[in-house]
Amino acid sequence: MKNPTTTFFSLSLLFLPLLAAAADLVPTPWPHQFHSILFMNNTKGLLQVVDLWYDWPNGRNFNIIQNQLGKKLYDLEWDNGTSYYYTLDANKECKVYRDGFLCNVWEKVDFIWYYEDVATKRPVSWAFYTGMIGHVMTFEVGQVLDDPNWQAPVYCFEGAKQDDKVMLESPFQYRGLVREFLSIPMVV
C-alpha cells in the first residue's frame, strides 16, 4: 500500500499546472478608452464594417458604420441617453434619439415587468403580459390616497347592473396582492 502523503503529493503535482492556469482565467479589465474595427454580419445577411471609438470617461461611444454597397452612417452615442444617427453626404440625414435607460428589471409572477433606471433608482416603465407598456411619468414614494377616495360611489351598490363577465381574459388568477420578484439587469 502506498503512503497517503506520497499519493497526495503526487496528485498535487498533477494539478499544479491547472491551478497556475486558473489565475490566467481572470478576465482583463474592460478598457476605459479604445478603438476597434468590427466586421458585423446579422442574421438577415446585412454586412457592415464598424469603426468603433469607445470613450467611457467622457461618456461617449462613436460607431462609424459602412454598410455593404450602401451609405456610411455615423452613430454618435452619449451616456445621457442621446444618440445621433446621421450621414455626412449631401442628403444631410439625421435622427436624434433621446431614449434609453440602463435598467434593473423585476418580473412579477410572469405578469408584469418593472423597469428601474440604474442611475436614479426611479421606475421608468412597466410592461404587462398583454403587451401593454406603461411609461412612468411621476412616482411619489409614500404618497397615499385619502381613505374616502377608496370607496366606490353609492350607486354602484344600489341596484346598478352587475356584470360578472371577466373584463380581460387572463391565464392568471390571483388572490390578494402578490409580491414575488426576480431581478435582472437590462437596457431598454
Automatic annotation (TrEMBL):
What are the protein's UniProt keywords?
A: Signal
Q: Where is the signal peptide?
A: 1-22
Q: Sorted alphabetically, which InterPro entries does this protein's record hold? A: At4g14100-like (IPR038941)
Q: What is this protein called?
A: Uncharacterized protein
Q: Which organism is it from?
A: Sesamum alatum
Q: What is the lineage of its organism?
A: Eukaryota, Viridiplantae, Streptophyta, Embryophyta, Tracheophyta
